[in-house]
Structure formats: structure tokens, C-alpha cells
Amino acid sequence: MTFSTPCAFTATPRTTPHLLHHNCPPNIRLEEPLYQFTTSSSEFDKDYSKFQGDDDEDANARSQFGTKSYWDAMYEGMGDFDADEYSWYYGFEVVKPYLLDYTANDDAVVSNKKQDKSTISILIPGCGNDPMLIDLYNAGYHRLTAFDYKYLPSGSNYVDTVELSVEDARALPKEWEQSFDVIIEKGALDAIYLSGDGNFEQSVKEFSRCLKSGGVCMSFSGVVPEEVRRDGFDGKKWKWLRDGSEDLKAGCFVFRKI
User: Fold this and answer.
1) In this structure, which topology does domain 21-258 adopt according to CATH?
2) Which of 38, 108, 237, 252 maximizes the CB count within 10 A of its CB?
3) 40 falls in which pLDDT band (50, 70, 90)?
4) How would you list the strands of the sheet with 121-125, edge to edge?
5) Methyltransferase type domain location, by residue (predicted)?
6) Residue in 95, 110, 209 with CA at minimum distance from that of residue 141
């Protein structure tokens, strides 16, 4: 069984940025997102059992949001959200200022020049049907890799420079080791945490392995307990650049690999 992240990617090419949530510069708290994972949502009262396959790991999940069957149902149009395009927590306009603020390399800072965004390699775990890949590409970030736990539609390869694949966040490809400058995840680690014990920790280890030394992981999260996050993003291996604990509902956490 291959379980990594919550959803499957469907590309819907657009030419303008997709703003679903509040625009917020890095120096203030994030506003309330449009939607959040919760362990007390009425979503859990719904019966998704008919979509349950032979995925035994669903039995270990802490909630419906941690099960493969829930997300399969969601992206088959059985959920409350758009099955074709949906941005979890925040849209690109919220992510963008953090990306600009935390990804400038030392050479760019010293020379006071803008870094060539097309040279920044970015990994998007749990890409789902989030349109952020399109927004990133339109913003000049062309070295993009994204993955999810289930098949990706053949029509989703809208640009040659975006690599899409089906992967397990707990065991990413060996060839990805030290390949990426930035990882951006929005709710993927939340769903992974909810899927069962040890999955969050193992996925963070894989993220670290795939990041270059000094690479940045941006995590938009509203579920992972503080103590679990601090154990996973251990201060001996990660430098905490931004603690999103005080953000409303879903926080923006930024870590640099040491």
C-alpha cells in the first residue's frame, strides 16, 4: 500500500493567481483559513465506509482525515469541497511572501540582487488538486516536483518542467536525496499525523533527506500537536525560522535544515 498524503493532483491551467484566502505579510499573524482539519468535525458523522478498500492502515488512523478512503471519496466528488480544485488552508498569495522571505540564498543577500526563482527547486508533498503548482509556475518557479499517494491524471502534465509522481511520504525515492531547496506542504503532514503513529516522524525524516543542506521546509499546519512537531523537527537537525503557534487556526512554520 502506498499512502503518503491526502489528495490527488488535477491541473486546471489558469493565467491569473488563485486567491482563496487572506493575503498576509510574514510579520503578522495569519488570519483564519477557509477550512481546517479538526477531530470534532461533523464530517466524521458521514459514512465513508463504502469507499473503504483493502487498505488495512486506515484502521490505525486517528480520524477520518487520516484515512485513504476519506480522500478517495473526497476526490470522487463525494465530499463538501470542490473535487476539481481546492486549496487547503491558504492560497498562493498567502504562501508567496514567506517563500520570498525565506528562500533568498546567501549570495543574493550579500549582493543585494534578486535570486533567479527559476533555479529554486521546490517539492510539494500531497499536491492534491491544489492549484498552487500553477501559481508557482506562473510566478517564475519552474523547477517543481509534486507527489501524492494515488495516480495522477494523464492530462495533468501541463508543463514539461513540472514533475508529478505517485509516492509514499514515508519512503521517498532514493534519487531525491539532497535534491530540493524548498519543501512546501499545506496540510499534508496534518493528514499524515492523523493516519497513525510514527508516520509524521518518518515523513519528516524523509523531507530532511530530500532537502539540500540549508534547505527550507514550509509547513502550514493546524493539527499536529506542538510536542510532536518539536520532536519531529528536532532543534539539533532543524533551525526554527518561524514558529506559527500563535497564528490563528493554521500556522505557518518555517524550518531550515542544519
Assistant:
1) Rossmann fold (3.40.50)
2) 252
3) very low
4) 162-166, 143-148, 121-125, 180-186, 211-221, 251-257, 238-242
5) 126-218
6) 95
